[in-house]
């Protein structure tokens, strides 16, 4: 993986990455010089530096009426990843605590019919996952299906472990199958 794609996975924009890499190679520099090296206009360079500073990757100092920006040691990226990981874990825990409340809001809408439209293999997989997730929470743990020979070759192409997952969850199926 190249450095640009790794930095973009951290949530940095293309211009922020260009500014950061330019600053790393330049050393302490005024905003104009950083923008020229990064090939980014001055205003965007300033915004990028501000965001990089918030993430702890850039600092600045004043010298002779000019502001000089300095890239922090790249090891600070590890601290950033740890912080983001911690924030993500806190978000996951928060989600876990509010799911019951959200489900109670959602269950109030059960009487209303819902129509969903799916396309392609990804849509079929989404439907099959939904069948398992919804059926798993029913009293009978059973669903009914109509199946014809025409659709069977396409049905499990993107979710080949569907039957295995269904059995693991103790979900039963009643099928009306037409054709071979």
TrEMBL record:
Entry superkingdom: Bacteria
InterPro entries: TrmB-like, Tscrpt_reg_TrmB_N, WH-like_DNA-bd_sf, WH_DNA-bd_sf
Transcription regulator TrmB N-terminal domain location: 7-70
Name this polypeptide is given: Transcription regulator TrmB N-terminal domain-containing protein
């Amino acid at each position: 993986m190249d450095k640009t794609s790794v930095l973009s996975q951290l949530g940095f924009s293309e211009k922020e990455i260009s500014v950061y890499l330019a600053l790393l190679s330049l050393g302490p520099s005024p905003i104009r010089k950083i923008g020229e090296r990064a090939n980014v206009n001055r205003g965007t360079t300033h915004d990028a530096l501000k965001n990089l500073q918030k993430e702890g990757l850039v600092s600045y100092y004043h010298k002779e009426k000019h502001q000089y920006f300095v890239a922090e040691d790249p090891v600070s990226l590890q601290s950033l990843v740890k912080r983001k990981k911690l924030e993500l874990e806190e978000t996951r825990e928060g989600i876990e605590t509010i799911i019951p409340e959200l489900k109670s809001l959602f269950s109030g809408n059960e009487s209303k019919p819902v129509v969903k439209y799916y396309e392609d293999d990804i849509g079929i997989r989404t439907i099959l996952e939904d069948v398992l997730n919804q059926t798993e929470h029913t009293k009978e743990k059973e669903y009914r299906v109509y199946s014809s020979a025409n659709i069977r070759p396409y049905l499990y192409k993107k979710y080949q472990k569907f039957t295995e997952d269904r059995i693991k969850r103790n979900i039963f199926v009643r099928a009306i199958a037409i054709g071979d």
